[in-house]
Amino acid sequence: MRIIITGGTGLIGQALSVRLVSEGHEVLVLSRSPARAPDALAGVQVARWDARTAEGWVRFASGADAIVNLAGASLATRWTPHSKRVIRESRLNAGRAVVQATAQATSKPGVVVQASGAGYYGPRGDEALTEEAPPGPGFLGQTAVAWEASTSPVGESGCTQPGSRHIVIRSGVVLTPKGGALPRMMLPFRFFVGGRLGTGNQWLPWIHIDDEVRAIQFLIETAAASGPFNVTAPKPVTNREFSRVLGQVMHRPALFPVPSFVLQLLLGEMSTVLLDGQRAVPQNLLDLGFTFRFPDLEAALRDLLD
Length: 306
Known about the structure:
Layout lengths: L1 E5 L4 H12 L3 E6 L13 E4 L9 H4 L4 E4 L11 H24 L6 E7 L10 E2 L8 H12 L15 E7 L1 E3 L5 H10 L12 E2 L1 E3 H13 L5 E5 L5 E2 H12 L9 H8 L4 H4 L3 E2 L2 H5 L9 H9 L1
Parallel strand pairs: 1-2, 1-4, 2-3, 4-5, 5-7, 6-13, 7-11, 8-10
Antiparallel strand pairs: 9-12
Helix pairs in contact: 1-6, 3-4, 7-11
């Protein structure tokens, strides 16, 4: 297969690229700074793009088996009006660029995989959330709605040929020691001051990095796959349980909770990412027959950390 990945220098993009190349697929990563592409992308073709238009890469999109759109500014920053605008616009600009490239391609890509997140559902307490659940309010939920819609036109029929298959991946917290949330979660435990965040009752939709990239590849290769998919482990846990298991795996106590008001003071509105959870379950993936290598949190953390 020939696969284009936007945002391919990020955590998920790198892992996905490495897996696909190891299996003999041709991978093109689009980057604003190809010269600074990480060493992990050795063997991957890296091309320049402006993250806003299809200029310079339409020829690659034509006849591609898949475009995986992971591009977007990080959520891990204090949400000021400016940073919220950057977060939203970076996602919408990348989505429009993918639509533009697909529209101009002489041969449509087979499938477009659009990134999103479990934050789409907003804070829903203990409600089990399948892909049929409606979106939630607030910045995170509404940004996810717009992000998903940014590439939905690729599924529409063109004048002379059908549109591309359109898939949305609503990822949970992707666990890997190489970056993202897990190293930050581990830090207080290293100093014996780890514990739950807030009440600890909020749900944490997590997934092992290997299952994340395996699921994306599975969806690309499965002709019946279209629409939204919760890319989360089938056994979500509460933050309290996650902290307990992480401490157990690291041989550290989980006795020092961080009060909600402290996180709100430190992080402002972005604290909702940590304090409001989603009990997302990957119903559509399971229905298609996807098998998770790491459905249980303890086994996942031991694989990543031992």
